[in-house]
Request: fold
Amino acid sequence: MEESARIPELFQLLFREHYPGVARKLYALTGDYAAAEDLAQEVFLRLYRNPPDRLEAVGAWLHRVLTRVGYDYLRQQASGKSLLARETARVAAWSEETAPSGETEVIREWEKDVVRRVLHKLSDRDRTALLLRENGYSYEEIAHRLEVNPKIVGTLLARAEERLKRKYGQEEEQNGGGKETDRRGAGI
Reply:
């Protein structure tokens, strides 16, 4: 019983000693301070759940795990960007298949630009979740891709969609509200 009581104390000691270095290395790898902190927490969660056999080698173990976690994050970010590029290309191909009027084409291009801007304003997780759903991925596939529990994917998607709608409305107000007023004022 006394041995199990020492484990949390030992973990706290290791956390205090190594967390700044782990977070700093992850920041250097990712270039994103918030992501580095999240990834550092993931590294220490793995340490807590599956500590190395020899605790005197914990520094090397942490370095190996933080490198894996960091590169997994970068791969996920790169594939999310390629997913965004594929989705943009799909939307562009769809719009080219039809022969809309000039006014319809201008409106459609404006809407695509707004959607792109709004998507880039969302967090990487929200953007990836929405694009995966739009491409027909199942909740389990989305959960696996985002490394979250499948049970929360529905809530995650609902919240991401709400943020997208809110930011889309803000974007329209900023960029579209003045156009409507200009048209009315010009008698168009």
Q: What stands out?
A: Residues 178-188 have pLDDT under 50 and may be disordered. DSSP finds seven helices and no strands in the chain. Helices lie at 2-30, 33-49, 58-97, 102-121, 124-134, 139-146, 153-185. Residues 118 and 167 are 6 Å apart (CA to CA).
